[in-house]
Amino acid sequence: MDIKNIVFENYKCFKHAEISNLQPINIIIGKNNIGKSSILDILEMIYSKRPTRQTNIIVDKELSEMDIRRVFRQDMRGGGIPTINHYEFGKKFIGKTFKIKIKNDGKLSSNEFYEHFDEIFSEQYRNYWKRLGAEIYYERKLPKRILAERNIFPEIENEKMDVDSNGNGITTIISNYLNKNEYDEDLVRHTLLNKLNEIMGDDANFTEIVTQQIKRNELTKWEIFLREEDKGRIALSESGSGLKTILMVLVYTILIPDVERKKISDYIFMFEELENNLHPSLQRRLLKYIEDLSAQGATFFLTTHSNIMLDTFQNNELVNILHVQKIDKTSIIVNSSDNLQRNNILDDLGLKASDLLQSNGIIWVEGPSDRIYINKWIQLWSNNALKEGKDYQCVFYGGRLISNITLDKKSEDELVNLINVNRNSIVIIDSDKKSSHSPINSTKRRIKEECDKNNTMCWITKGREIENYIPDTLIKKLKGFERSKKTFSQFQNMEDFLDLLQKGLGKKFLRDKISFSREITTSTEINDFINSLDLNTRMKQLVKIISSWNN
Ligand SMILES: Nc1ncnc2c1ncn2[C@@H]1O[C@H](COP(=O)(O)OP(=O)(O)OP(=O)(O)O)[C@@H](O)[C@H]1O
Ligand SMILES: [Mg+2]
């Protein structure tokens, strides 16, 4: 496509919006009533060159050699142009972006040169740019739209070989292809039927497609029938609705170009919510078909609420993801190619890992005793509301193995990307600081920085280790040393402190940290911990994040 970007203003729910980085496949995703279909209206106006009503549209066109040659001719020289001929001067602008304004006078739109004088298109050559503006045009494409609400009905015989975006006309086209001499019936009997079976996969295998006349309310109408090995011949009106969506896409992409004698690359297909009535693997196979067509030059704009599209087209450079959102009562379009932005889409649509029976987030801790403390504290700080296994899940990174973990997409080849495990993550790490001014090691600093970049909570303990959050009064009470004057400090080793209470207690702790943590957490309350270092702040933050994962 030669149009790279589109800017429009004051259209329905949009004040100012930009559709950028157009690609062969463009996914328009967002909540209901947010403006997805309205974007298709704008695109239809641009490509069919229909009146643009009360909206300003500006398109960025990539200048082609033909555009340049039209104004900067090889057989011209002088006229303020410094090179031996005009084309020599103009050719350096091939591939540059030129802005075209589409008129909003309510009449048929026409191109209008739009002010675009920057360092590339300088004022000095204004007259040439003006001429270019007057003569330039962008590639004409034929918009073909399928609405979210669509159906295929039996139809009275007629000659109209055109389809309405709601599905009217599909039966007539198929019937005319099968029954009228001037059309190639093979295109339906084989090409279309084979593609239909390919997309249906294991779900169905149709051996034949026919149209027959039926009587409905005194009228004779054509109806489409599909034959299946074990079911016999079934009328389309008696079949599932997903089948109709697929049939409609096939008619648009196989029969319509044949009727209109055009190439697939002459079209812009605007399909709304193809996912309606299609189960996930069927959606994926239909999208594969669309991807294959885009490789042959077709352009697609697909509106959707479905995460399947995001997933199917992940990391595909030929797919553009446009996320439509509302900010301050106006809709905006955000180009959402990176992970973080895609996560925003999932959040915006309310998609959760638990929709797939997975827990909604992961807390990465060093080992089993850390898990016991964290679970207890979550229980206390959430008032028993949050449950491991459902609302969140603890996972161990195992001490120094943390150096093999990353949140940075670029390091994925060598390190495990924690975001790929679950986009909702919290990382808890012992600072291992021996005093207030000991440094945090470089791995931990790296993880913290990556977490910050990804809006992920990274909790490096304020004291030496997670155990330093246990107040000494509690330890002394549980171990029977209530009257001891010994204190446990922020950067002290737990085993050293225990040894101070009683020789050998430290070793016992080291041998079985898990039993120790169970003992500490068994019948303790929030008041036992609430004044401990930054624990209260951290736990409030942590509980808030886990709650947000689970709404
Ligand atoms: N003349 C107008 N002025 C301002 N806003 C308008 C006007 N006409 C329609 N709208 C608003 O524009 C939006 C149009 O939404 P649109 O139909 O494009 O949504 P959608 O994202 O396709 O939704 P769905 O997913 O439900 O199909 C609605 O919020 C509607 O209220
Ligand atoms: Mg819509």
Report how far the terminal alpha carbons are from each other. 41 Å
Can you tell me the number of structural domains?
A: 2
Residue fraction in strands: 15-25%
Can you tell me the CATH architecture of the largest domain?
3-Layer(aba) Sandwich
Which strand order does the major sheet show?
Answer: 7-11-12-3-13-14
Radius of gyration: 33 Å
CATH topology name of the largest domain, in short, is: Rossmann fold
Write out the CATH superfamily name of the largest domain.
P-loop containing nucleotide triphosphate hydrolases
Determine the mean pLDDT: 91
Percent helix range: 25-40%
Detailed description of the structure:
This protein is α/β, with parallel strands linked by helices. It has 2 domains: 145-348, P-loop containing nucleotide triphosphate hydrolases (Rossmann fold, 3-Layer(aba) Sandwich), CATH 3.40.50; 357-551. The protein is built from 19 helices and 20 strands. The protein has helices spanning 36-48, 65-71, 86-90, 126-135, 170-179, 186-200, 241-259, 280-295, 307-312, 339-349, 368-381, 418-421, 442-453, 472-479, 494-501, 505-511, 513-522, 526-529, 535-549; strands at residues 3-11, 14-19, 25-30, 56-62, 97-102, 111-113, 142-146, 206-216, 219-228, 232-235, 267-272, 299-304, 319-327, 330-335, 362-365, 393-396, 405-406, 416-417, 425-429, 457-460. The strands form 5 sheets. A 6-stranded mixed sheet has the order 7-11-12-3-13-14, with helices on both faces. The radius of gyration is 33 Å and the shape is extended. The two termini are 41 Å apart. 35% of the residues are buried. Residues 106-110 have low confidence and may be disordered. Magnesium ion (MG) is lined by residues 36-37, 148, 272, 303.
